[in-house]
């Protein structure tokens, strides 16, 4: 598993790790019940504190994306498709709120935004 972290990013390192693993799970790069690297191994690979990796794993476990079995390691939890869909809907909502703010400031009508959205969908089908 390749995780690239940026020390110059405003996003905390634990969150970068959490996001990378989350995306790998959602994209099926990490499969259900697949074992994740140990906290120490990943920390060594990334040259960061194991506490940072532990925090990322704890957040993923609290969200239901991984499960940790004491003495065995951490594994990708069975996918909860409803949870993943809800997460993606929240991301879309956040982006649409940004679109709304830009259109409001720029005096772009709802109809114009809807037309752009429809064109994008049609081009990508």
From TrEMBL:
Classification via InterPro entries: Tscrpt_reg_HTH_GntR, WH-like_DNA-bd_sf, WH_DNA-bd_sf
Domain HTH gntR-type: 11-79
Gene3D superfamilies for the chain: Winged helix-like DNA-binding domain superfamily/Winged helix DNA-binding domain
Entries under Pfam families matching the protein: GntR
Keyword flag Transcription regulation: yes
A molecular function GO annotation: DNA binding
Domain of life of the source: Bacteria
Keyword list, A-Z: DNA-binding, Transcription, Transcription regulation
Protein's name in the database: GntR family transcriptional regulator
Source organism of this protein record: Candidatus Faecenecus gallistercoris
């Amino acid at each position: 598993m390749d995780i690239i972290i940026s020390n110059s990013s405003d996003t905390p390192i634990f969150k970068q790790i959490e996001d990378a693993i989350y995306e790998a799970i959602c994209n099926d790069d990490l499969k259900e019940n697949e074992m994740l690297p140990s906290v120490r191994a990943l920390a060594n690979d990334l040259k960061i504190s194991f506490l940072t990796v532990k925090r990322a794993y704890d957040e993923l476990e609290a969200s239901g994306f991984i499960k940790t079995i004491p003495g065995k390691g951490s594994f990708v939890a069975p996918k909860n498709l409803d949870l993943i869909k809800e997460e993606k809907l929240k991301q879309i909502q956040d982006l649409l709120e940004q679109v709304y703010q830009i259109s409001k400031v720029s005096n772009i009508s709802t109809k114009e935004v809807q037309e752009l959205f429809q064109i994008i969908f049609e081009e990508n089908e």
